[in-house]
């Protein structure tokens, strides 16, 4: 797959098809991007499992932190990598080893995180991969919410936005599977 550009349908299918996200590199610091991405995903109804060995046993946004992916004892649809590009290969290899145990489907590498070797290995193992993207930004862009901040989403449509089940300004991409 070409990871220089993703079709909106590919990203939307991933975001609509997942329910549980393991966030590797989650931070308790409210000024860190992983914190507000986690807060956003929780607000959209996703379950998020923070993974950070330095914070294991503590809580971030009411979610218990685990030390590693191997410590997760439930299904995980997507692993969101908030680590640098060099660390991504090791994380992806751990994901591949735990793929069946976790029922893992997707590896998502955050903005500025790109490792083509890791992506090739993940895809060879049957996992979908997204690199150098943020699920918060992509969800907001595809749902139209990002326009509230004055950002051009690059989408032109006469369709009314789909509303979520709670709140007045809660757009969704579509019904999750």
Could you explain the architecture of this structure?
This protein is of the alpha/beta class. It has a single domain (8-142), classed as NAD(P)-binding Rossmann-like Domain (Rossmann fold, 3-Layer(aba) Sandwich). It is 32% helix and 16% strand. The chain contains 5 helices and 9 strands. The strands form 3 sheets. The chain has a 5-stranded parallel beta sheet, sandwiched between helices. It has a two-stranded antiparallel sheet with strand order 3-4. Helix 1 (8-17) crosses helix 5 (135-143) and helix 3 runs parallel beside helix 4. The longest helix has 18 residues, at 85-102. The radius of gyration is 16 Å and the shape is globular. The relative contact order is 0.17. The mean pLDDT is 91.
Keyphrases for this structure?
177 residues; alpha/beta; Rossmann fold; 5-stranded parallel β-sheet; globular
Q: Got a strand count? A: 9
- Poorly predicted runs of 5 or more residues: none
Beta percentage is 15-25%
* Structural class by SSE content: alpha/beta
Give the total of domains. 1
CATH architecture descriptor name? 3-Layer(aba) Sandwich
- In the CATH hierarchy, what is the class? Alpha Beta
List the helices and strands in order: HEHEEEEHEHEHEE
Question: Helical stretch count?
Answer: 5
Spatial gap, N to C terminus: 24 Å
* Helix share bin: 25-40%
CATH superfamily, by name, is: NAD(P)-binding Rossmann-like Domain
Mean pLDDT across every amino acid position? 91
From the 3D structure, determine the CATH topology: Rossmann fold
Taken from the alpha-carbon principal axes, the silhouette is globular
């Amino acid at each position: 797959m070409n990871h220089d550009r993703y079709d909106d349908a590919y990203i939307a299918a991933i975001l609509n098809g997942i329910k549980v996200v393991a966030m590797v590199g989650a931070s308790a610091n409210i000024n860190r991007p992983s914190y507000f991405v986690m807060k956003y995903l929780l607000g959209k109804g996703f379950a998020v499992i923070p993974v950070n060995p330095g914070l294991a046993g503590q809580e971030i946004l009411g979610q218990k932190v685990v030390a590693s992916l191997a410590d997760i004892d439930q299904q995980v649809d997507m692993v969101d990598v908030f680590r640098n590009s060099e660390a991504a290969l090791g994380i992806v290899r751990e994901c591949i080893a735990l793929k069946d145990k976790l029922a893992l489907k997707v590896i998502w590498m955050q903005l500025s995180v790109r490792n083509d070797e890791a992506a090739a290995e993940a895809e060879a193992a049957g996992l979908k991969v997204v690199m150098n993207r943020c699920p918060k930004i992509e969800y907001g862009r595809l749902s139209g919410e990002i326009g509230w901040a004055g950002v051009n989403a690059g989408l032109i449509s006469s369709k009314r936005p789909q509303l979520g089940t709670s709140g007045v300004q809660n757009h969704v991409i579509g019904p999750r599977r």
